[in-house]
């Protein structure tokens, strides 16, 4: 585990007003983060659930294109509660989320505190965003900020792409990885003539431990040359793994900080979520040069240990500052936090 | 249901010799099929299992790049038998197949019988084919025959692309749709400047009935502009759906014959597999113009009702002959068969 030079909880649900009078904010987490000049721009995922409680019913929110927010009130005995986030509708076997997410753009001059709570929101609008917009990852490519996000809808959890110049207006570029695929990270520059992304397909049948894949593109929209980059090796990552902060260039290779989750005997995605790191070859990014055998970061702070889902650190953005690294992450599926590491100590931890 | 003008079982496991002395052929099914001049070229999936039986053990075959065939003998009490095809290794929760598949190239002058059983084999060779090569779909594009196939490995069930000029030598083009994705069909020509494919992602969490998607590409290798084409509507397709024969052009639209499976209370993929059809707009193939409300074909013949998996018709290739259509399909996950339909009667059945 790495020494934390600085650590703070930046955003809590009470800091933001709801996006709709019928909703309340229950999570402000998994922030995309990118350097904009000397400042840091964040896109924070805001999870909201119906404010109203109806005895014997579950309120399931969704955004209908054109119609806005709709809450489906479903009798409790017609659904199965799979975990705090997901119910299964018994009649169809299909899943629904108990909350709906969007993004809010926040800014930090010092990287360690939020300047203002009045940010522009990036809300569900397309049919493929009906159940929400989740887990943005921002990469600056040229003078434009691209961000991938999980678009959840009746079609499943796909990954879509959008971009912005100013974090005030946004352009959508559609679904780039069909369901089920999450944790899609764009590299900041082409490698050998093609853009590169890490992605994390999630098949219905598992033949192996969880894996992260790589893909290539000439236009950021069409992706191919798929290959496996990293399969879970440590016990701490036997349940789930996925890209964390978009990779950034160091003299030793592309540095990637990712998340892993220990397999629980009960269900996937229930155990501790920790962070690890690896270095990819600068010219052949499908090759891992070295990796951290153990997590570099595990839930320690109270806001990491207790929240909507306990014991989660989930890195989603990195900003280099001289010889340190500001790592932005979701804590306990409830909070946005930042931790500062020494880059030299991080590289030293990546030993294998 | 459509009138069958002609119907025959073309290939049975006993017709082909095993590819390896330690294996026996248990299935010859799900054939890719394409017109080559006046003839029909087939790529038949050959499923093989270990010839030896060891009391108390399951023999799980795999192809290791460089090393060839390996059979892992696993004590029965360390695995769970999920269905006749799949076991789960208890220690890891990962799946293994009880057989391994490759393809054999066969030829039919009249489209209704096989000329010779000595075909060139397309066998696992790459690491992403370790557990087999399944369910080819052939599309002629220009003067080259491209075929997609399911590449099964520890990384899951992905779809890869290969091509040939002569069905004697083959070029591999790698994974084009990462796991889990099957039933990938290429259109025979670009539409509005891009190649088009139908595909069938299979997420770990289902938010909706099963769906078929469409994607676009400029080079057949990088795919994007993903969108949903068809979601299951009839009761007969509530379990699983997926593309069948590669779409072909008619004056009314792209004609697609696909498969559906009725949801079983026991498990997905257990109920009857039937065939339906729809017409896609010639210029905007993401739009369904009309569809068959009911199956056009259900298991009837004995070789469709009884086999490795009972009650399966699984269309995988179509050849137009004047005003009729030769539809090649897998029967009962064991046999290759052909059925002949009137194209006029098929179009009439697609009414909605």
Short account of what is shown:
The structure is a homodimer of 352-residue chains. Chain A has 352 residues and is mainly beta.
SS class of chain A:
mainly beta
DSSP summary: helix tally of chain A = 2
Assign an overall shape of chain A. Answer: globular
Reading off the top of the CATH hierarchy, the class of chain A is best stated as Mainly Beta
If you compute it from the alpha carbons, what radius of gyration of chain A comes out, rounded to the nearest whole angstrom? 19 Å
Specify the CATH architecture of chain A. Answer: 5 Propeller
| Mean model confidence by pLDDT of chain A | 95
How large is the share of residues in beta strands of chain A? Answer: over 45%
Count of discrete structural domains of chain A: 1
Sheet of most strands of chain A: 5 strands, antiparallel
Number of β-strand runs of chain A? 26
Oligomeric form = homodimer
* CATH topology-level fold name of chain A: Tachylectin-2, Chain A
Most extensive chain interface and residues per partner: A-B, 48 and 48 residues
CATH 4th-level superfamily of chain A: Glycosyl hydrolase domain, family 43
Order of helices and strands of chain A: EEEEEEEEEEEEEEEEEEEEEEEHEEEH
- CA-CA gap between termini of chain A: 15 Å
Low-confidence segments of chain A, given as residue ranges, are: none
């Amino acid at each position: 585990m790495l020494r934390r030079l600085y650590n703070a909880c930046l955003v809590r649900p009470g800091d933001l007003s709801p996006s709709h009078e019928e909703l309340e904010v229950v999570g402000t987490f998994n922030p995309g983060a990118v350097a904009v000049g000397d400042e840091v721009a964040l896109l924070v995922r805001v999870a909201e659930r119906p404010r109203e409680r109806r005895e014997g019913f579950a309120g399931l929110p969704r955004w209908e294109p054109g119609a806005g927010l709709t809450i489906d009130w479903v009798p409790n005995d017609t659904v199965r509660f799979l975990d705090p986030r997901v119910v299964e509708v018994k009649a169809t076997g299909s899943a629904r989320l108990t909350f709906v997410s969007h993004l809010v753009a926040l800014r930090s001059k010092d990287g360690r505190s939020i300047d203002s709570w009045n940010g522009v929101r990036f809300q569900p609008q397309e049919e493929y965003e009906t159940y929400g917009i989740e887990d943005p990852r921002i990469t600056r490519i040229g003078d434009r900020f691209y961000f991938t996000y999980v678009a959840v809808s009746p079609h499943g959890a796909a990954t879509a792409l959008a971009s912005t110049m100013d974090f005030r207006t946004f352009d959508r570029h559609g679904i780039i990885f069909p369901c089920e695929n999450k944790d899609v990270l764009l590299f900041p520059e082409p490698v050998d003539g093609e853009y590169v992304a890490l992605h994390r397909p999630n098949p219905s049948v598992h033949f192996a431990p969880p894996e992260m894949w790589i893909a290539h593109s000439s236009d950021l929209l069409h992706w191919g040359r798929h290959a496996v980059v990293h399969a879970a090796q440590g016990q701490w990552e036997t349940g789930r793994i996925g890209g964390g902060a978009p990779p950034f260039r160091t003299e030793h290779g592309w540095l990637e900080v990712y998340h892993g989750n220990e397999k629980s005997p009960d269900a996937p995605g229930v155990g501790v979520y920790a962070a690890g790191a690896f270095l990819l070859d600068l010219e052949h990014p499908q090759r891992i040069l070295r990796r951290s055998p153990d997590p570099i970061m595990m839930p320690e702070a109270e806001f990491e240990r207790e929240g909507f889902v306990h014991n989660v650190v989930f890195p989603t953005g990195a900003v280099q500052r001289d010889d340190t690294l500001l790592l932005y992450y979701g804590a306990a599926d409830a909070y946005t936090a930042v931790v500062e590491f020494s880059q030299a100590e991080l590289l030293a931890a990546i030993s294998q």
